[in-house]
Design brief:
single chain; Arp2/3 complex 21 kDa subunit ARPC3; 68% helix; globular; mainly alpha; 10 helices
């Protein structure tokens, strides 16, 4: 089928083919669990940056989608959200700022939804080869960031009221950091494919 030919292998598939010795179900579980753990780690580490400290969480969210594909990328984020809803301190600022559903209904709730949507979208784009060139990788990351911001900012506006400086609270302080992470992804992902191509793994 012509439609099936448009789907490219992801980095995960190139590095660890699903047709290998590992049972497909075990491979899926391991990748999804590892993805959720990586998300937790990225939420806990803050890097000094201007104008606000930067975490690598959005980079990991979008990177998981592009590396794993839309199904496994979204599943990793979904598992991360389930862990958080169950009360595990996986989110940034937990447990100090609350845990569980109470935290998820707070100011970051819209962004958490955006994580899931963005991972799925970036994974879908990666399966169409967008992660293999610098320009298309940067564009995919840009679109993914927009998908995170839209529900995040909208939810902030609904929660606090549009008479408040919503963009100053929920978007503009993070733009420079997100552009930095975008540039990093645009360098790393195509470079990884270039290395794999040298070894005949793409």
């Amino acid at each position: 089928m012509q439609g099936a030919q448009t789907v490219n292998a992801t980095l995960a598939e190139a590095l660890w083919p699903s047709s290998g010795r590992t049972m497909p179900a075990a491979r899926t579980v391991l990748l999804v669990v590892a993805g959720s753990l990586l998300l937790t780690l990225s939420a806990k580490i803050q890097i000094p940056f201007y104008p606000v400290p930067m975490t690598m969480q959005t980079f990991v969210v979008l990177g998981l989608g592009m590396a794993l594909g839309w199904r496994l990328g979204a599943a990793s984020v979904a598992l991360y959200l389930v862990q958080g809803a169950a009360g595990l301190p996986v989110f940034a600022g937990t447990p100090e700022k609350g845990i569980g559903l109470a935290y998820m209904m707070g100011p970051t709730g819209g962004y958490l939804l955006g994580f899931l949507l963005a991972a799925a979208l970036c994974g879908w784009l990666a399966e169409r080869g967008w992660d293999r060139k610098v320009l298309t990788t940067a564009l995919a990351m840009l679109i993914g960031n927009a998908v995170i911001y839209v529900p995040g900012v909208l939810y902030l506006g609904v929660l606090f009221g549009w008479d408040k400086p919503i963009l100053e609270w929920g978007m503009t302080p993070f733009l420079l950091g997100d552009l930095t992470k975008l540039a990093l992804a645009a360098a790393v992902l195509p470079a990884a494919w270039a290395v794999l191509k040298r070894f005949g793994r793409n």
